[in-house]
Amino acid sequence: QVQLIESGGGVVQAGGSLRLSCAASGRTFTNYVVGWFRRAPGKEREFVARITWTHGIRYYADSVKGRFTISRDSAKNTVYLQMNSLKPEDTAVYYCAGGDRWRDWGQGTQVTVSS
Asked: Cα–Cα distance between 8 and 17 in angstroms, integer?
């Protein structure tokens, strides 16, 4: 069982930046994949970015490509989502997820971007 805990959400003005963290515990993470998802009010959950733990291979949704960067710190068992040039449409609850078919989920952290 993997436990994922997000942090770093908050309120920021458009054009600003935030960094989200996802701390993972409970097992070794070889071959583990960690991703970020978000759910905006009135919308379905959508994929944002993912990274493979072992090789650090990254993949992004088109809507965030060039603005968001996903990374990991193996020593801290933590995955980060650096979000730059934030837009009001990035407002959502952001979730960290991992494992086969996104088996493991965190509780979410709110990000609000004001115009």
From this structure: 11
Q: Which residues pair with 59 in a beta bridge?
A: 50
**Tens digit of each residue's pLDDT (9 = 90 or more) over 11-34:** 999 999 999 999 988 876 667 899
Give the separation between CA 68 and CA 41, rounded to whole angstroms: 20
The model's pLDDT over 75-110, given as tens digits with 9 standing for 90+, comes to 898 999 999 999 999 999 999 999 889 999 999 999
Residue 44 near residue 24, CB atoms below 8 Å: no
- DSSP state string for 26-69: SS--TT-EEEEEEE-TTS--EEEEEEETTT--EEE-TTTTTTEE
Residue reference for tokens 């068992």: 77
CA distance 80 to 72: 6
